[in-house]
Amino acid sequence: MLHRLVRVTTFALLGGLCLGSFALACGGTNPCMLDDRQYYVEMPTGHDGSTMVPAMIFLHGYKGTGLGSMRWQALKDAAASVGAALIVPQSKGDAWSMDNAPEDFSGGNAPELAFFDAMKADVSTRFAVDPDRMVVVGTSAGGMAAWMLACHRSTSFAGFVPMAGTFWAPVPPACEGPAASVVHIHGDADKTVPLEGRAIGPARQGSVPETLAMYAAHGGFGAATEGTVDDLRCDLQTNAEGAILNFCLFSGGHSFSPRHMLAAWAMLESAGRL
Known about the structure:
- The structure is a single chain.
- The chain has one domain (31-270): Alpha/Beta hydrolase fold, catalytic domain (Rossmann fold, 3-Layer(aba) Sandwich), CATH 3.40.50.1820.
- 34% of the residues lie in helices and 24% in strands.
- The protein has seven helices and twelve strands.
- The chain has helices spanning 2-24, 66-70, 73-81, 109-126, 141-152, 208-219, 258-270, and strands at 32-34, 37-42, 53-59, 85-89, 129-139, 159-163, 182-187, 199-200, 203-204, 225-229, 232-238, 244-250.
- The chain is globular, with a radius of gyration of 21 Å.
């Protein structure tokens, strides 16, 4: 009887440990918890668990979700096609907290900057992701958050790809630290986030041309040359440190294309950022 009791007790303890380990595991559609925030990770297909890989960090738009983004097969396929992990954080509310944002998500930059600092450290511990080859991609409100990170965390990530989003007005007069490599992509007929911005209640979206001019001055970027990448019409700039500031338009409205994300990734690769 005592022998059986020991066996049952041992099984219960081991089972508890296994369940505890399972609860701590994350990946795919199982979120990685970070205090009261969360993010999702999808490693490249066939990854051996130890080889370091680059990463795309995708920031969803207004009322989007990390889980919904992680279930988008085209997004996962795009990351996998370049051998990158896909990391999808979840905003705390309907959108990312930023300075000058409408009241519904007006907590300012500080909470989001702290979250992204913690997320980068956490994901680098849990997964074989190269912390020096992480690229931030954001669409719409996520594009606004990408610009915020480019301005305040330029050395934390290898590059930034804001798509259809910019700062909330007023555009900051300058950014912190050295200039990062930025590829801004926008639809030429976008009415949700027009290039010149628009009012959202008492707040206002910033001007994309003003944002680009500020960042060009901040980073000492040279005169733009015109180029075409895929279906994108681009103004291409570089600075003395080899960073790029590319502004690319496509024919269309407020939309996100994984193909454009890959075009931006290729630009960052060509510039030696990855």
